[in-house]
Specification:
six-stranded antiparallel beta sheet; five-stranded antiparallel beta sheet; about 30% helix
């Protein structure tokens, strides 16, 4: 959000919480570490998953908020697990506590695949990860272990912000959780959001694809479906009266007719529209430039078809009408979107709807689309030099 949005810091923080953004302080992290390592600690997520082969984890001596374990191995059942009430009491009541709780599950000791690391470092595009963030974390870890008598400044000089696979392993050795929104809290969905929690460096560890997680994301309107690696978890939050975890069970994600899944594609479009409005500058005496700051611009593709577009520093959003007249319902199966480094081609029922030449390159692996009634909303991540 921009600093000139008219909100006070407190109002801005509340707006972020209301929209499902987790805000964690260093004090929160210290409290979490204490709660998870005490002598009277609750069952860890690793212990719960290990007991699934014997009995239901919710009957294994822990009570609390239910969430879902979604293994990559399709021969294994999707199971309901539990966020222990003792942990919620220690860390809560506010906040999404699942990322902290499941972090240890991802501390599996697996090494980073050097080839994949180099490919992704070149692209600067981790699924849910950020090279600069990991480099900063690795630097902090190294500075925290300066040997006695050696000045920190001297050690800092030896530490560069260039990330290596070994420093990335050090930074994520204790587990690193990434949160992927299947649907975010909003007024139209009773302020409830559903998220996937995954290993932030699962791809770099060369973990197997989790096809069931990708299918779930696709049902929620993500096209093409994003890739998830290794076992993941699915949890639900409510942002009212403050952000907190609420129950979701295995049946809630296995049944595609559940209301939250059916409504998710449209809810995601509404959320993006709200973000566009929220990031628009308030109190401007001059109109914003078309295509920026939340103001859509109209354009015509190479084939003469019209569309609208928006952009910011990181991405470009295109809105393409698939059916202009009539009451015909859009069939998702007839939609084909071809992402090229500097072009986007949209076809519906084998008819080219729009062909857009882009001024700068996009990262084709960071592109997706969502259907909003009769309009196709395409999001393209800009390529980094």
């Amino acid at each position: 959000m921009s600093n000139d949005d008219g909100m006070t810091p407190t109002e801005r923080e509340q707006w972020l919480r209301d929209h499902g953004v987790q805000i964690e302080s260093s004090a929160d992290r210290r409290k979490a570490e204490s709660a998870l390592s005490g002598t009277d600690r609750p069952l860890s997520i690793i212990e719960q998953v290990q007991r699934l082969s014997i009995s239901d984890a919710t009957a294994a001596g822990e009570n609390g908020v239910k969430f879902v374990y979604l293994p990559h191995d399709t021969s294994k059942k999707i199971e309901t697990v539990c966020l222990p009430s003792r942990l919620v009491e220690a860390l809560g009541p506010a906040g999404d506590i699942i990322p902290t709780y499941v972090k240890s599950f991802f501390a599996d000791g697996r090494s980073i695949d050097e080839k994949i690391f180099k490919d992704q470092a070149a692209k600067q595009n981790l699924l849910g990860g950020d090279m600069e963030k990991f480099a900063a974390n690795a630097k902090k870890e190294k500075l925290a272990t300066v040997s006695e008598g050696e000045p920190a400044a001297k050690e800092e000089e030896k530490t560069t912000t260039t990330l290596s696979s070994s420093s990335l392993m050090n930074a994520t050795a204790g587990g690193s959780t990434e949160t992927f929104p299947l649907v975010r809290p909003s007024k139209t969905n009773k302020d409830e959001g559903v998220y996937i929690y995954l290993d932030e460096v699962g791809m770099l560890k060369h973990l197997p694809l989790n096809t069931r997680a990708s299918q779930l994301a696709q049902q929620c309107g993500y096209h093409p479906a994003p890739n998830f690696y290794g076992d993941v978890f699915v949890g639900r939050v409510s942002s009212k009266p403050m952000l907190h975890n609420i129950d979701i069970e295995s049946g809630d994600i296995m049944d595609a007719t559940k209301e939250w899944i059916v409504r998710a594609p449209h809810e995601n479009v509404l959320w993006q529209q709200a973000i566009n409005e929220a990031t628009g500058r308030s109190g401007e005496t001059q109109p914003n430039h078309a295509g920026t700051e939340g103001v859509a611009a109209e354009a015509t593709g190479n084939d003469g078809c019209s569309y609208t577009w928006l952009q910011n520093e990181e991405e470009v959003e295109l809105t393409v009408p698939l059916i202009v007249d009539g009451d015909e319902t859009v069939n998702k199966r007839l939609i084909k979107v071809n992402f090229l480094p500097q072009k986007v081609v949209v076809k519906y029922n084998n008819e080219c709807k729009v062909e857009v030449e882009l001024y700068s390159k996009i990262d084709v692996d960071g592109c997706t689309w969502t259907l909003d009634k009769k309009n196709l909303v395409i999001t393209c991540e800009k390529a980094r030099d």
